[in-house]
Amino acid sequence: MSNDGTIHARGIRKSFGYKTVLQNIDLDIACGEVCCIIGPSGSGKSTLLRCINGLETVDSGVLKVNGEDFGYYETDTAYHALSPKKVAAQRTRVGMVFQQFNLFPNMTAQENVMSGPVLVKGTHKKQAAERAQELLASVGLGAFGDRYPAQLSGGQQQRVAIARSLAMDPEIMLFDEPTSALDPEKVGEVLAVMQDLAKKGMTMVVVTHEMGFAREVSDTLLFMDEGVIVERGAPREVLANPKERRTQAFLKQVL
Ligand code: ADP
Ligand code: MG
Question: Residue limits of the ABC transporter domain (predicted)?
């Protein structure tokens, strides 16, 4: 059976210097599953996403993404880094969208969406442009391909960023507080694109403060605090009946 679109972690640990940022993280995400992560600032949410897409390597533990050891592999005696080429290939299969949209300011929306396929995969420009146009249409921006980022609203820029990630045909999409930098009236249009993606069966891990989205769209909700997953479960259950004291305290503040 194919493990494409899955994430499997056992006992992940990650430190920066003496500070342990992730400890004992176990995670199983099935293909097509949507997992939302909530938790206070500094709890390790971004670091966990960055490990899952290879921007950081874990210190120890098992991490398999799309069924493959990610970033490194383990033998009886040691961890060995995978070759940079292998890591780069693995990373193309995991898309990531950040709070700050990180578009290339000197490229149009269409050029932004084309850039990955053309530069990384060597896709022919004409073909990449056609695909970019389709992807822009799918996020409601079919008429905006020739605009530069500065000519787009925050919500539009974030939708271009999502289209740009999708252009690499990832099996997994990671979102790190994708609506936190947006004006409130622009949040809905980005969440709608994400909900659409979820419906199409994309495996997604979403760090968010949007509890409505977590409740309606996610299959699993995780609450993290101080580098550990404190509580997890069906989103309605966790939000309505949090079992752990720390989850209760956090939800009291945000709901
Ligand atoms: P969150 O996304 O939940 O706010 P982060 O994963 O960004 O949390 O950070 C978790 C902790 O790790 C914080 O204490 C942060 O200061 C620390 N941290 C994150 N990245 C680095 C880094 N590159 N170097 C040192 N410390 C870091
Ligand atoms: Mg963060």
Answer: 7-251
Convert the pLDDT of each residue in 146-185 to its tens digit.
999 999 999 999 999 999 999 999 999 999 999 999 999 9
Question: Is the pTM for the entire model greater than 0.90?
Answer: yes
* Ligand 1 atom with least separation from CA of 44: 6
State ipTM. Answer: 0.98
Candidate of 25, 47, 55 to mutate for ligand 1, largest count of ligand atoms within 8 Å of Cβ: 47
- β strands within the chain, DSSP E: 7-16, 19-29, 34-38, 60-65, 68-69, 72-74, 79-81, 94-97, 172-176, 203-207, 220-225, 228-233
Give the C-alpha separation, 8 to 10, whole Å.
7
- Mutating to test ligand 1, I would choose from 21, 55, 225 the residue with most ligand atoms within 8 A of its C-beta, which is 21
